């Protein structure tokens, strides 16, 4: 017997114009995006204080992760299940916890890379053979 799809249809959030999802973004079941104002109050109109939240290409957001308004999620970052993101996330960063902290680096293929959080070094993806370079706290794919 085939498993039934239990996903609940998603409705467009009221702040959809301020949330930008780039191409190839993987969103697991029900990540939460907090209101687009830093300190919302239902009786106070603050449309002039809306903050832009940007989710860049290839980002993965785990189930029940919460993204505070006004942050940028870098390309191919990986947000763990239940993490609470309160500040910008670097490209390829692996984030976990409440509040979220960087605990590693991920490849575009979704594998954890054998790289320290800081330093200058390289790692090779076993699945693709791509070489990832860590320089001054930033990871990039070597061409």
Distance between the termini: 46 Å
Sum up the overall morphology in one term: elongated
* Order of strands, widest sheet: 2-5-8-10-11-12
**Helix-residue proportion:** under 10%
Number of strands: 15
Cα gyration radius (Å)? 17 Å
Assign the CATH architecture of the domain at 18-35 and 50-113: 3 Solenoid
Structural class: mainly beta
CATH fold field value of the domain at 18-35 and 50-113: UDP N-Acetylglucosamine Acyltransferase, domain 1
Task: Give me the strand/helix succession.
Answer: EEEEEEEEEEEEEEE
Averaging pLDDT over every residue, what do you get?
Answer: 81
CATH class of the domain at 18-35 and 50-113: Mainly Beta
Determine the CATH superfamily of the domain at 18-35 and 50-113.
Answer: Hexapeptide repeat proteins
Please state roughly what percent of the residues sit in beta strands, choosing from under 5%, 5-15%, 15-25%, 25-35%, 35-45% or over 45%: 25-35%
The quaternary organization reads as single chain
Describe the 3D structure.
The chain is an all-beta fold and 143 residues long. It has a domain at 18-35 and 50-113: Hexapeptide repeat proteins (UDP N-Acetylglucosamine Acyltransferase, domain 1), CATH 2.160.10.10. It is built from no helices and 15 strands. The protein has strands at residues 19-21, 26-27, 32-33, 53-55, 60-61, 66-67, 72-73, 78-79, 84-85, 93-96, 101-106, 112-113, 121-124, 131-135, 138-142. The chain is elongated, with a radius of gyration of 17 Å. Residues 1-13 have low confidence and may be disordered. One of its GO terms (molecular function) is acyltransferase activity. Keywords: Acyltransferase, Transferase. Its EC number is 2.3.1.-. This is UDP-2-acetamido-3-amino-2, 3-dideoxy-D-glucuronate N-acetyltransferase.
């Amino acid at each position: 017997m085939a498993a039934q799809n239990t996903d609940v249809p998603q409705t467009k959030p009221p702040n959809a114009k301020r949330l930008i999802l780039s191409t190839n973004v993987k969103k697991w079941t029900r990540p939460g995006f907090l209101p687009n104002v830093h300190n919302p109050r239902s009786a106070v109109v603050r449309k002039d204080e809306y903050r832009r939240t940007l989710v860049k290409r290839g980002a993965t957001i785990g189930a029940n992760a919460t993204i505070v308004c006004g942050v940028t999620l870098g390309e191919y970052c990986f947000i763990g299940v239940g993490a609470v993101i309160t500040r910008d996330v670097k490209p390829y960063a692996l984030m976990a916890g409440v509040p979220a902290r960087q605990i590693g680096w991920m490849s575009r293929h979704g594998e954890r890379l054998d790289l320290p959080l800081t330093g200058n070094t390289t790692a090779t993806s076993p699945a693709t053979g791509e070489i990832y370079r860590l320089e001054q706290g930033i990871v990039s794919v070597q061409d």
